[in-house]
Amino acid sequence: MNLKPNVSKFTFGLIAIVTFSSCAMAQRHSGMVVNLGVKKNSFSLKEMDGTKIKDFKGSFAPALGLSYSHVLASKFNASYEFDISQVKGSYEEKFNPLYSIPFDPNDANNTSAVSQYDVKALTFSLKLLGHYQITREVFVSAGATFDRFLSPTSTTDEFGNLYPNDLAQDVKSDYFNMGGIIGLGYSTEAFRIDLRHSIGLINLIGDPRRYETLKLNQTSLTFGYYLGKR
Questions:
Q1: With CB atoms 3.0 to 4.6 Å apart as the test, which of 45, 84, 122, 219 could cross-link to 40 if both were Cys?
Q2: What pTM, to 2 d.p., does this model score?
Q3: 97, 128, 133: which is closest to 112 by C-alpha?
Q4: Distances in Å between the alpha carbon of 108 and those of 40, 103, 104, 112, 137?
Q5: Average pLDDT over residues 167-189
Q6: What does the pLDDT look like over 50-62, one tens digit per residue?
Q7: What is the Cα–Cα distance from 36 to 230, expressed in whole angstroms?
Q8: pLDDT digits (tens, 9 = 90+) for 38-53
Q9: When comparing pLDDT for 94 and 183, which is higher?
């Protein structure tokens, strides 16, 4: 029985595993990172009967922050991040005579009034992330984000007027968002690039309510530059 081909394959596989493991090292230093990026907000808004409002569209917003990237082991590192950004989006709201405030001056009976609302709120976020190096430069990420809103959501209707519309009244005055993060990144000695998606886990609607749930999801692309000596 000839075992040489099998032995050769086993030896080659072992060498490949050892070589890959030696290359799949974490970043070679810990350090402070300045981050600049962009976020795409997306919203999941449902009415009391469970109907999802499909017209709620999120928009892009810039983000600026700092993080500390810390080497934990040969293939693992973690980052603790802080950034400031905006939550931005828009949606259409139809007039409901049971609770809505009339807002369309061209519809005296308010039978078919529809208004476009822009939603904006300045936020700061704290992120806790773990990273696993697939290769020397490429890594995957997982973690959590906690977003605190610096001011209540403001809304502007199609006529340019600020309005205490139904959604703004439903959102909790002291609300925050918690999300789970997954991501893919690329790093060198000098910089890192992160592509991430966070899924909202907290319902931002409080009581009394006109809507059932509002959850915030975000997709971000961030460029980070390491400060100090490497």
A1: 219
A2: 0.72
A3: 97
A4: 38, 10, 8, 10, 63
A5: 82
A6: 888 777 888 899 9
A7: 20
A8: 999 888 888 888 888 7
A9: 183
d(CA 197, CA 224): 17
**Can you give the chain as a three-state secondary structure string?**
CCCHHHHHHHHHHHHHHHHHHHHCCCCCCCEEEEEEEEEEEEEEEEECCCCECCCCEECEEEEEEEEEEEECCCCEEEEEEEEEEEEEEEEEEECCCCCCCCCCCCCCCCCCCEEEEEEEEEEEEEEEEEEEECCCCEEEEEEEEEEEECCCCEEECCCCCECCCHHHHHECCCCEEEEEEEEEEEECCCEEEEEEEEEECCCCECCCCCEEEEEEEEEEEEEEEECCCC
Q: Which of 106, 88, 219, 211 has its CA nearest to residue 158?
A: 106
Mean pLDDT score of the chain: 77
